[in-house]
Amino acid sequence: MRKMFGLSAVMSAAALALAACSDSESQGPADQARAVSSPEVAESALTQVNNFSADPFWNNATIYFMLPDRFYNGNPDNDLSYGRKNDAAHMRGFLGGDLRGVIQKLEEGYFTDLGVDAIWMSPIIENVHGYDEGDKRTYAFHGYWPKDWTNVDANFGSEAELAELIEKAHNKGVRILMDVIINHTGPVTSEDPLWPADWVRTNPQCDWSSFAQNVQCALTNNLPDILTESETPVELPPQLVEKWRGEGRLDQEQAELDAFFARTGYPRAPKYYIVKWLTDWVREYGVDGFRVDTVKHTEPEIWAVLKKEASVALAEWKAANTDKKLDDREFFMVGEVYHFGVDNFANSDGRFYDYGDRKVDFFNYGFDSLINMGFASHAAKDMESIFSTYSGILHGGALEGVSVLNYLGSHDDQGSYDRERKQVKSAALKLMLAPGAAQIYYGDEIARPMIDEQAYGDASMRVPMDWSSLQNANTSDILAHWQKLGRFRQSHLAVGAGVHQQISAAPYVFSRTLDNDRVMVAVDMPAGEKVVKAADVFAEGALVKDYYSGVEARVENGVLTFDTEFDVLLLGAPEQTELSANQ
C-alpha cells in the first residue's frame, strides 16, 4: 500500500501468515488477535472485544479536532491540486490548510501550551477531485469523500509529511487519531466515476426508520454506500487499478492485498479491503487511534474487525519502533454515533443506541469511547447539574467502565453550544472540567466564529482559524483561559476520570478523586485573597498548586489561602504523579 512501505513489508506480511499457520502453540498477543480476527470465529468473539475497563488516560484526554484545510496553511503550493479550482460556493472549497501547517504549530508548541493529549484530524486520505452540487458547489475540503484510501490527498500534503507530523507529535507527547470511513465513497463527479455495483449502492436512500434503513441504504442521493453487509469476493474497482498503474504502484498494492487476505482469511469483500487500507496507516506510521465516522450506518460487526486488525498493526509497529513509541497503550477507537449521548440523550438507552427496531451496544464492537452528542445540549445547565449527573453515570451508572468524548461544537452539529460565542469562558469551564474526555473543536480556544451568514449549511461552522486575532488582547486572554484548563487536566487524570463530589454550592467548590490523585476546583471566587476548606481533599501541610495562577500554598489548619487576581482556583499536587497524562 504505502509508497514508503516497500516490498520488504509485503514479504514480512507473507511470513507472518505462514508463521500463524505453523506455530499455533507459541502465539503471542498479536498472533492471538490475528487468530480471532478470522471470519470463522469473529462472530463468537464480538462480545469479548471490550472488557469495559476504561483507560483513565482516554477518559480524561483533551483531544483537539480540526479540519486541516481550515487550520493553518503551511504550504501555499498545494492549495489547489488535481485540477481543482477556486470556484466553490462560499466556504465550500479548499482554503489552503495542510499537514505542513499542523507541523508548524506542533513545532511552535501550540498544542503543548494548550495541554492537548491527542490531535484528531478530519480524513486526510485522497478525496474525489471534482465537485458536487448537492449542497451548492462543494469540493472535498472536509476529507469525508474518499476516492483512494491508500493515498494522502495532495491538497493536504504528502505521505512523507504525514509521517513527519506523527513523529513530531509523538516527540511532543501528543497522540494522533485518524478519522476513518468505511460507510461510503465520495460522490460521483465529472472527475470521479461511480464505483462498481458489487462495491456500492446508490439507492434506496435512508429514511432512518429502522436498523436496515440506517445501514443498508445511501445516506444521501450523492454518497454511494459501500455494501458492508456483503461477504462476497469482488475485484478491485477498475478506476483504482488504472490509477495505481499510472502511479507505478499497482504490483505493490496487489501484492500487499494478497498477503493481507492470506494472513487473515477474510473474503475479498469490500469492507475487508478498506480495513486493510486503513490499518496500514497504523502499521507503517504508528497512528495511535481512529475516530470512526458514521458508525451507526454500518453493521456493527465490521468495527470489531477494524479494531482487532488495528490493534495487531499498532502492536507490530511498537515492537519495530521501540525508540519512537510513546508507551505501551493499546490502540484506541472512538466512534461517532449520531444522537448517542450521556443520560439517555436522544436515541440512547444507557450504552445502547436504539434504531427503533433494534438496539446496539457499540462499546461491545471494539469502541473504547463514543462521542457524547448530548453535551452540547447539556452545556446550557449549571455546572453542578452536569458534573454530578455525568459522574454518577460514568462511575457506577449505565456507562461504568467506558469512555465518552464531550464537545461544545463540531463541524456538523447545528445544535453546537454557544455558536454566538457569548459565553466562551464559562463554556470552557463546563467542557474542560466535566467528567469524561474533552474535544476542543479547532478555534474554540480563540472564540473562532461558528456562524457565517454567507455560508450555506454546515459550512457556516467551518470558518478558518484567524491567527491574526491573537494580536487582540481579549482573544489572547481567552486562549490563556483554555491553556490553563488544558494543562490542569493534563497534570491530573482525576479531573476527567475521577469521581465528582460537590463541596460548596456558593461559591461553587468541588473535588475529583481517582485512586490517590485528588484535585479541587473553586469558581466564582473573589479577586484577591480567597480561602477554601481543603481538609477533606488534601492532607495537613500538603503543598498545593493553583494551576490557574501558578501560585502554590500549603494546607494550614485544614484550609488553603491564595491571593490571586482571578476568580478561579484549579488545585492539585504540583508534581506530576503516575496519574498524569504526561506519564
From TrEMBL:
<feature type="signal peptide">
    <location>
        <begin position="1"/>
        <end position="19"/>
    </location>
</feature>
<dbReference type="InterPro" id="IPR017853">
    <property type="entry name" value="GH"/>
</dbReference>
<dbReference type="GO" id="GO:0043169">
    <property type="term" value="F:cation binding"/>
</dbReference>
<dbReference type="Pfam" id="PF00128">
    <property type="entry name" value="Alpha-amylase"/>
</dbReference>
<dbReference type="InterPro" id="IPR006046">
    <property type="entry name" value="Alpha_amylase"/>
</dbReference>
<feature type="domain" description="Glycosyl hydrolase family 13 catalytic">
    <location>
        <begin position="65"/>
        <end position="489"/>
    </location>
</feature>
<comment type="similarity">
    <text>Belongs to the glycosyl hydrolase 13 family.</text>
</comment>
<dbReference type="GO" id="GO:0004556">
    <property type="term" value="F:alpha-amylase activity"/>
</dbReference>
<keyword id="KW-0732">Signal</keyword>
<dbReference type="InterPro" id="IPR006047">
    <property type="entry name" value="GH13_cat_dom"/>
</dbReference>
<keyword id="KW-0378">Hydrolase</keyword>
<keyword id="KW-0326">Glycosidase</keyword>
<keyword id="KW-0119">Carbohydrate metabolism</keyword>
<dbReference type="GO" id="GO:0005975">
    <property type="term" value="P:carbohydrate metabolic process"/>
</dbReference>
<protein>
    <recommendedName>
        <fullName>Alpha-amylase</fullName>
        <ecNumber>3.2.1.1</ecNumber>
    </recommendedName>
</protein>
